[in-house]
Each structure stands twice: as C-alpha cells, then as structure tokens.
Design a protein that fits this description.
Layout (H helix, E strand, L loop, with lengths): L28 E3 L6 H17 L2 E5 L5 H11 L1 H4 L3 H6 L4 H4 L4 E3 L5 E3 L4 E2 L2 E7 L15 H26 L20 E7 L4 H6 L3 E6 L5 E5 L6 E4 L5 E3 L7 E5 L1 H6 L9 E4 L10 E8 L14 H6 L13 H11 L6 E2 L5 E6 L2 E6 L1
Parallel strand pairs: 1-2
Antiparallel strand pairs: 2-12, 3-6, 4-5, 6-7, 7-14, 8-13, 9-12, 9-14, 10-11, 10-13, 15-16, 16-17
Helix pairs in contact: 1-6
Length: 366
C-alpha cells in the first residue's frame, strides 16, 4: 500500500472539457459497484454483453478509486515524460521490434501514421509491467513504485476481474473461467501504460488528415482507459462513421481486443478505434493518458470456449484452426513486433490496410 507520506511531483491540471458540437458515441454506462453481489452481477452482465456486442466500448463508474486517487495517478503519469532526461530515457527504452513487448519508453516517431505521406507518430509512452518491480525504472519514477503497484492491483482485481466475471456469465460459463487465465502472479505482459500525445505542426495535420493514431484493434483481451477531458479518441460505429468518445469525470472507458475475440470465438469482436487531433478549443494542449492493457498469462492458448452453451447456440467464428491457435505470448510478440512499423498492403475495403500475422489478416483503418 502507498505510504501516508507521498513523494512530491508536479500537479497535472487538465484543460476544460470541449464545448465543440461533436458527434459523440452513445455508449452505455455500467456501475461496477454492483459486481460485489451475485444479484448485481446477474443484473449487469446482460448490459455489458449488449454494450460490447453493439459498440465494443462502454463506460464504467464506481470502480473504487476516488477522484483524488485518480488525479494523483495523472500527476504520476507526467513524471516519466517531464522529470527524466533524454539520455536516461534512452537507457530505459525497449527494442519492441526485437523483444515483442512494451516496457519502459516508446520514443516519438516510431509508428507510421500515414505510410503514403511518410507521417510518423508524435506519441511517447512509458509501459510498466503489472509486476512493477519486474524491470528497472528511471530514478525519478522509483519513489512512485508503491503507488503504481497499488494502481496495477486495483485495475487488475477491482476492475479487470469483475469485467471478466461478467463476460463469463454472458457466455454461461463459470464466473472464474476468464479470471483463471488472468493471474497476477504468473508470467505475462499485462501493463500499466502512460501515453503522451504531443501536438503536431499544421503541415503534418493537413498531410495526415488530423489522424494521430490510425484505426486499429488492441492486442489483448481488455483495455481500461482512465477517462480524461482532452478529446481525440474515436470509435468506428456500425454505420461506418467515426464517433467521438465523451469524457466522464473519474470514469473508465472499457474495450475488447484481439485476444478476447480468440477466446470467445468471435462473440466479442475487437473494437476498431483511433485517435485524432483534439477539438478546436483543446488544440493548445498535449494529451496525457493512463491505461491498463490486460492480457492472459503468457502460456494461455487462444482457443475458443467451445463448451460455452452460448457459443454452441450462436456458433463459433474461429480465427484459425484449433491446432494452429497461438499462445498469448506468441500473438502478443507477433503483433507488438510489427505494430506501426511494418509495410502494410492496401486491403479490399476502402481506407483499409492489411498485414498478415501468424497466418491471420490484421486490418488497420484510415
């Protein structure tokens, strides 16, 4: 648990919410405090099921952190970017293309946002394994490890696991079915991640059509985004249009990724989303984010739960033959090693680029 005397760091002051008239996605809100009882979970899982199958995204509230605790995490999120020298950052930068996992820093201008116009990203991030002492950290980050450990455990046990129990119930499986594949004390690359999107020049915005991170799906099972007021996140709606995701004070934005699609036989699809330039009244700010990217244990094979009565009724959309199903570690490495760095091919669909990973087509959306 964090010490009563917290180490000091600069306070993050977020900008006001946008006043622009935007097309927001109408996402459902689930109350995680209801997951504490069997009756509450029975009431919630149909809401979660319908939200994720319709939108792929939902909001979650009453997750157990106060507004002050949430604000403190955003204070800490600025430390790796603001309080570490460029030279020290290089020491803690991981070669993801070689190792296949995110740890420490991803520098700016590594990912291709627009291959045709040679536009690279302006995103710096700092990733921390859920076992926060697994790998070394810059000097400025080390005093905050007790709080980061508490944050990782809170995301894992008080947010991720309740969500996984609801998904299991929606598949008419025992509640702990997915929880048992997402352990906190087993080898894996679930991570806390802080991301900072830096503003770009007007010329780059024009050339990239204001896209900061092209449409994609996440690698893991569940992504937990701690809502913050600077707009930019958009989801691809069922009508083919991009909708903005609205900020909710001390709320969470939850979405599913590739590995959840493997495990649920296509019942829960990976959510296509992107990040674009913030609304006009927020363009003077860089965009800071805090996330928890969840994946199963490394050795979990990504096979569908064919024993699920729901999947037996609706049918299983296998991503590959069962004998060819990758492990979590294999899929994570294959995707992480190529993401944003491979040369994509134009797909059949308009505005879609493709690459083949582990024999399966992965799409990127522009």
């Amino acid at each position: 648990m964090p010490s009563l005397t917290q180490p000091e760091c600069a306070h993050y002051i977020p900008p006001p919410e946008t006043k622009e008239d935007l097309q927001f996605a109408d996402l459902p809100i689930i109350d995680l405090s209801k997951t504490h009882t069997p009756e509450g979970r029975a009431d919630l899982y149909p809401q979660l099921r319908d939200a994720l199958r319709t939108h792929g995204f939902l909001y979650a509230i009453n997750h157990g952190y106060t507004q002050a605790q949430r604000d403190r995490i955003f204070d800490i999120a600025g430390v790796p970017f603001n309080d570490v020298s460029p030279d020290e950052k290089k020491t803690y930068t991981t070669d993801v293309k070689k190792l296949g996992y995110y740890a420490g820093y991803k520098p700016l201008q590594i990912w291709k946002v627009d291959s045709e116009h040679q536009i690279l990203d302006q995103i710096e991030h700092y990733a921390i394994n859920f076992n926060v002492t697994k790998r070394p950290h810059p000097t400025a980050v080390r005093p905050f490890l007790p709080e980061l450990d508490d944050f990782a455990r809170h995301n894992h046990f008080n947010i991720l696991h309740p969500i996984l129990r609801l998904i299991a119930l929606s598949l008419e499986l025992p509640e702990e079915t997915l929880v048992e594949k997402h352990n906190f004390d087993r080898a894996g690359e679930t991570s806390v991640r802080f991301m900072k999107y830096y503003r770009r020049s007007n010329e780059e915005e024009e050339r990239s059509k204001n896209v900061w991170l092209k449409g994609h799906t996440d690698i893991g099972t569940i992504t937990i985004l701690w809502s913050q007021p600077i707009g930019g996140l958009q989801i691809l709606a069922s009508d083919g249009t991009w909708k903005w995701v609205r900020h909710i004070d001390n709320g969470l934005v939850i979405n599913t990724g590739d590995m959840m699609t493997f495990l649920t036989g296509g019942y829960y699809k990976p959510t296509i989303h992107r990040v674009v330039q913030p609304p006009l009244d927020q363009r003077a700010y860089d965009r800071l984010g805090a996330y928890y990217f969840a994946m199963p244990d490394n050795d979990v094979r990504l096979l569908p739960y064919s024993e699920s009565p729901v999947l037996k009724r609706v049918g299983i959309e296998r991503q590959c033959l069962d004998k060819d199903a990758p492990s979590c570690e294999m899929w994570r490495k294959a995707r992480a090693m190529t993401y944003g760095m491979s040369d994509l091919k134009k797909g059949v669909e308009c505005g879609v680029e493709e690459e083949v990973i582990e024999g399966m087509v992965v799409k990127h959306y522009n």
